[in-house]
Amino acid sequence: MRLLILAALAATSVAALAGASSSPAEAREYAYCLQGRQQGYPGACDYSSFGQCKAAASGTDADCSINPRFAYGVSRGPAYYPAYSPYDSRAEW
Fold first, then answer.
1. 3-state secondary structure of 34
2. Fewer Cβ close by (within 10 Å): the C or N end of the chain?
3. CA-based angle 80:84:85, to the nearest 5?
């Protein structure tokens, strides 16, 4: 009986550790959103390709567009400004 309890405790411990070590699902922004009256704005942004979104929208009053959080959330680096200043060529007073 004691051996059975010890085996059950070991199995429970292994199962608990296996469940605790798994990482949670990664939240990500998908590129396309299904938009319509039922979805609101920005819509159901669950599609990684435009074709997937159009297939889900077929037969409904919804349409597909680019996810604004996906499109405008990516940093494109610093803006380029040339070393030219329009005030450099001004005549001295």
1. strand
2. C
3. 110
Per domain, the residue ranges of the chain are 26-73
Please give the structure tokens belonging to residue 89.
Answer: 């060529």
pTM exceeding 0.85:
no
Cα 81 to Cα 79: distance, rounded to the nearest angstrom: 6
Q: Starting from the edge strand earliest in sequence, which strands make up the sheet with 44-47, in order?
A: 44-47, 32-35, 63-66
- Write the pLDDT tens digit of every residue in 70-81: 777 755 566 666
**Rounded Cα gap, residues 26 and 19, in angstroms:** 16
Q: Which of 72, 73, 69 is nearest to 33 (CA)?
A: 69
pLDDT in tens, 24-71: 666 677 899 999 888 888 889 999 999 999 999 999 989 999 988 877
User: Are β-strands 32-35 and 44-47 bridged in parallel, bridged antiparallel, or unpaired?
Assistant: antiparallel
